[in-house]
């Protein structure tokens, strides 16, 4: 992590963001809608949790064959993805509900996925959303070793083929939580730049307790109450996490590691030349996709709107998108939107090739 603090240009001299923010506020005032989620998001949260927990219940009922249970494990993988993108994501941004305890409750769903809430908020809310696509600060693109997602990372010979093997590695995203969370906690506590606050003793206790809970939930209970062998359980466990990892990683990568999404470098004083809001448009991309897919992935096809207004629920992004695009074009700022999911995916593969050579 960078030793010096990263700063953005002090003012938006174009007045783009003040004008945009006023238009967004006017939209909500005229529509008389809350910026957070409503009953639609609560029902969506219940559905996504059911997609995770009902297959789990069917597996531990011990009434189905190993192959049928393997299918249930894959369904759990999609459940993990749905909970992560449509429920936990909004809740940890405080946009799931206007009621704080509801946000806290649904943000804790991350423990069911094997993750840690505080680590997520540091890596995602603080580092990724503030310092998007900045090398050595945004951990989403930095320091992957087997993958070169940042122009600042060292180029290795194997990266020439990363567009071939990348999606296999994406399948490891959620399974890596168990080790990654401990490594990150140590890293944040020993960060010389102090961009984030260190973990308290209570935070460490929660981290350890949540991992023990996950082991009990995902391994001890199924192995105790079913007739499955350890090998059968392991196959289901890997299938579940691989499914979740591929879906989650792919959707996240299509926002920032695609053509047109810049990776600006701060100057020698650690200052990025653009104002924060303009930086978000320069480093982020949207992609068009069918409404059902957009619903399932929690509106993450509208990443530009999400990065500009992370405290607004994703259920509003489709309506806000024309306002953001029109305002960006008025101020001469590129609104990077891929016309389809396949186009965005191809753009990501081309970026992997470019970064690997």
UniProtKB/TrEMBL annotation:
Residues covered by the Fatty acid desaturase domain: 66-336
This protein's UniProt keywords: Membrane, Transmembrane, Transmembrane helix
Transmembrane segment boundaries: 41-60, 66-87, 99-118, 164-183, 204-224, 230-252
The organism's taxonomic lineage, starting at the top: Bacteria, Pseudomonadati, Bacteroidota, Cytophagia, Cytophagales
Organism: Spirosoma soli
Descriptive protein name: Fatty acid desaturase family protein
A Pfam entry, by short name: FA_desaturase
InterPro entries assigned to the protein according to its UniProt record, in alphabetical order: FA_desaturase_dom, Fatty_acid_desaturase
């Amino acid at each position: 992590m960078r030793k010096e603090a990263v700063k953005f240009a002090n003012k938006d001299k174009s007045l783009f963001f003040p004008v945009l923010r006023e238009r967004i506020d006017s939209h909500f005032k005229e529509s008389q809608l809350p910026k957070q989620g409503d009953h639609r998001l609560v029902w969506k949260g219940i559905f996504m949790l059911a997609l995770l927990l009902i297959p789990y219940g069917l597996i531990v009922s011990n009434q189905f064959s190993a192959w049928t249970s393997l299918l249930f494990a894959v369904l759990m993988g999609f459940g993990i993805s749905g909970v992560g993108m449509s429920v936990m994501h909004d809740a940890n941004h405080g946009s799931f509900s206007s009621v704080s305890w509801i946000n806290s409750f649904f943000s804790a769903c991350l423990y069911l996925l094997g993750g840690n809430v505080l680590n997520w908020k540091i890596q995602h809310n603080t580092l990724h959303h503030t310092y998007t696509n900045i090398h050595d600060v945004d951990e989403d693109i930095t320091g992957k070793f087997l993958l070169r997602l940042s122009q600042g990372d060292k180029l290795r010979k194997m990266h020439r083929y990363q567009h071939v093997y990348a999606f296999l590695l994406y399948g490891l995203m959620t399974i890596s939580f168990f080790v990654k969370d401990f490594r990150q906690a140590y890293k944040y506590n020993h960060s010389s730049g102090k961009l984030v606050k260190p973990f308290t003793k209570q935070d460490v206790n929660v981290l350890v307790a949540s991992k023990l809970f996950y082991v009990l939930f995902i391994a001890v209970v199924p192995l105790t109450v079913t007739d499955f062998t350890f090998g059968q359980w392991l196959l289901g466990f890997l299938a579940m996490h691989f499914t979740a990892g591929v879906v989650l990683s792919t959707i996240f990568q299509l926002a920032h590691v695609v053509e047109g999404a810049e990776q600006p470098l701060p100057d020698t004083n650690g200052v990025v030349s653009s104002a924060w809001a303009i930086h978000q448009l320069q480093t982020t991309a949207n992609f068009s996709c069918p409404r059902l897919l957009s619903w399932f992935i929690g509106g993450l096809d509208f990443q530009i709107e999400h990065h500009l207004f992370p405290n607004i629920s994703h259920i509003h992004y489709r309506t806000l998108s024309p306002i953001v695009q029109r305002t960006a074009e008025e101020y001469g700022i590129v609104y990077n939107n891929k016309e389809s999911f396949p186009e965005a995916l191809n753009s990501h593969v081309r970026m992997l090739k470019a970064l690997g050579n």
